[in-house]
TrEMBL record:
One GO cellular component, as annotated: cytoplasm
Any GO MF annotation of the entry: thiomorpholine-carboxylate dehydrogenase activity
Protein name: Ketimine reductase mu-crystallin
Recorded family membership: Belongs to the ornithine cyclodeaminase/mu-crystallin family.
Amino acid sequence: MNNIPYYGPAEVKASLKYEELVSALELALADFSKGPEGGVSQPLRATAEVTKFNGFLAAMPAYVSSRQALACKLVTFYPNNTAKDLDTHMAHILLFDETSGEIKAIMDGEVITAMRTAAVSAIATKYLAEKYEILAVLGSGVQATAHTEAFCKMFPIKKVNIWNHRTEGAEKLARYVKESLGIEVQVFTDVQSCVEEADIINAATFATEPILKEYSMKPWVHINYRRSSYHLRILTAVGAPRPQWQELSAELMNNSTVYVDSFLSATKESGDVIKSGAKIYAEIGEVILGTKKAEINKKTIFKSLGLALEDAVSARLVFDVMEQNKKTAKP
Ligand SMILES: NC(=O)c1ccc[n+]([C@@H]2O[C@H](COP(=O)([O-])OP(=O)(O)OC[C@H]3O[C@@H](n4cnc5c(N)ncnc54)[C@H](O)[C@@H]3O)[C@@H](O)[C@H]2O)c1
Ligand SMILES: O=C(O)[C@@H]1CCCCN1
């Protein structure tokens, strides 16, 4: 138990690159959707509710055989922390040796939670969207910022539209987009106008009631009359992680082709799925595997709950980089 390495947020951030994360997670999501022969073991996360303080503590263990990644994330979610100027999600990840079960490292899990969630939304977008010029972002917190960064790195985004329920937040994110990413940006005060022209929409808020309604999305952007000239838009939705919460209206869910990260998580944890009764078309891993084709004649939603396998794969990537750094630093 002595000398277990600890990697803080700065070390984790320096070790992870979106390109590598996307490739590794794509393979792991495909393994997951293969079923038992994919070599992924991942129960539904166990959650201890702290009702008095509107929070929870979740344990998220997973094993991904193809990456030799065995890990458990412990994450707290306290939405009321915003008022205290504290992070709303706090997380640590324990990484284990797959052969012996010994602990190999403990690391910050907040950077991983932000980056792996954005990377998975980017994977869904890569497979399911057909045009990548205008990004609409609903929310301006950790996830909205990570998604903006990941999407702008991975796709040829020309403009970012931002809406947040508090305009100051949207303006802060807009300054980051303009000054650090060098991309045109516009802040909106209503959701409808923000998403109207977008090719990709990302929703990452604490909304507990739908903020995005049926009328807010057109299924296609019509360029001319031939099918090849239409392009499919995508909504990646990462919020509303509780069975009673909704970020998207039931009409929108029911009039869309719904893809998820995990059938089990979506049907047990997602208010958007449970309250709307919407049918799930496929896991994104099935699309990556090619066992389910992308549906192209409807609105497209990718509903993400967040999976332990994503944390395990990311933690393993960080560990490998840190070990490599150690070797190269030795005289
Ligand atoms: N799918 C996943 O893998 C995954 C992973 C992490 C977080 N999440 C979820 O994503 C969402 C955003 O998380 P975050 O880390 O960015 O949190 P955050 O605290 O950094 O940001 C929360 C955002 O929601 C906004 N907001 C607060 N109350 C709102 C309301 N009533 N209506 C609309 N917007 C509101 C805030 O202004 C802020 O922009 C949460 O629901 C979180 O649980 C999902
Ligand atoms: O996958 C995650 O890490 C988060 C934990 C909190 C709720 C939303 N999903």
